[in-house]
Amino acid sequence: MNDLRIRAAVAADIDAVLAFWKVAAEGTSISDDHAGVARLIERDPGALLLAERTGGPDTPGGDGAGEGAGVLVGTVIAGFDGWRCHLYRLAVHPGHRRRGIGGALIAAAEERFVRLGGRRVDAMVLDRNRLGRAAWQAAEYGADEEWTRWVKPLAPMAAPAGKPATP
Predict the structure, then answer these.
(1) Own/partner pairs, 124-130, CB within 8 angstroms, 24+ separation
(2) Across-strand partners of 49?
(3) 138 - beta bridge partners?
(4) SS3 string of 52-64?
(5) Residue 7 forms beta bridges with which residues?
(6) How many CB atoms are located within 10 Å of the residue 99 CB?
(7) SS3 letters for the chain?
(8) Do residues 16 and 75 touch, judged by C-beta distance below 8 A?
(9) Mode of pairing for the β-strands spanning 48-54 and 4-8
(10) Torsion angle (degrees, nearest 10) of CA 94, 14, 158, 78
(11) pTM of the model
């Protein structure tokens, strides 16, 4: 896998990431829009990790250009709030699964957490996502039967006169 490069996303990657998630990710999120991903990158520039492969004719999205033609093949969001480490959006392109990309992304995320002082990591996985659950089990993660996720979508905050509202 020496043709795999993992790097932090930048603002210029947002449209490609959103398009990639439509093909490779299971389910959608309320934050799956340009503004949501831009906020993530601005607030925590190292959180959204991208796995890229050198483009080639057998690489989905590859143009055969060879060296330097990075093609997005995987993502993970490695969020750390100073207290807990959270993993979201582990996604690998269907044409590149079972090649160690997910494991490489998880390892990169864990290395990030250790550098930041994290002590424990959790991963958000849809119950119906059998492939995702298998990937996390292969990375030695286990379901925590003691916790249930509770969620509530938030309404955008009203903005002061002359300023845009924030979601």
Answers:
(1) 124/86, 124/87, 124/88, 124/149, 126/26, 126/27, 128/26, 129/26, 129/27
(2) 8, 76
(3) none
(4) EEECCCCCCCCCC
(5) 50
(6) 16
(7) CCCEEEEECCHHHHHHHHHHHHHHCCCCCCCCCHHHHHHHHHHCCCCEEEEEEECCCCCCCCCCCCCCCEEEEEEEEEEECCCCEEEEEEEECHHHCCCCHHHHHHHHHHHHHHHHCCCCEEECCCCCCHHHHHHHHHCCCCCCCCCCCCCCCCCCECCCCCCCCEC
(8) no
(9) antiparallel
(10) 60
(11) 0.81
Helix axes 34-43, 14-24, angle to 10 degrees: 120
Could you report the per-residue pLDDT of 56-69, keeping only the tens digit for each?
A: 545 444 433 333 45
- Amino acid of residue 87: L
Strands 85-92, 4-8: pairing kind: unpaired
Q: CB-based burial of residue 44 (10 Å sphere; 0-12 exposed, 13-18 middle, 19+ buried)? A: middle
Tell me the one-letter amino acid at 110.
E
Amino acid type, 149? R
Query: If you count them, how many residues does the chain have?
Result: 167
pLDDT digit string (tens) for 81-94?
999 999 999 999 99
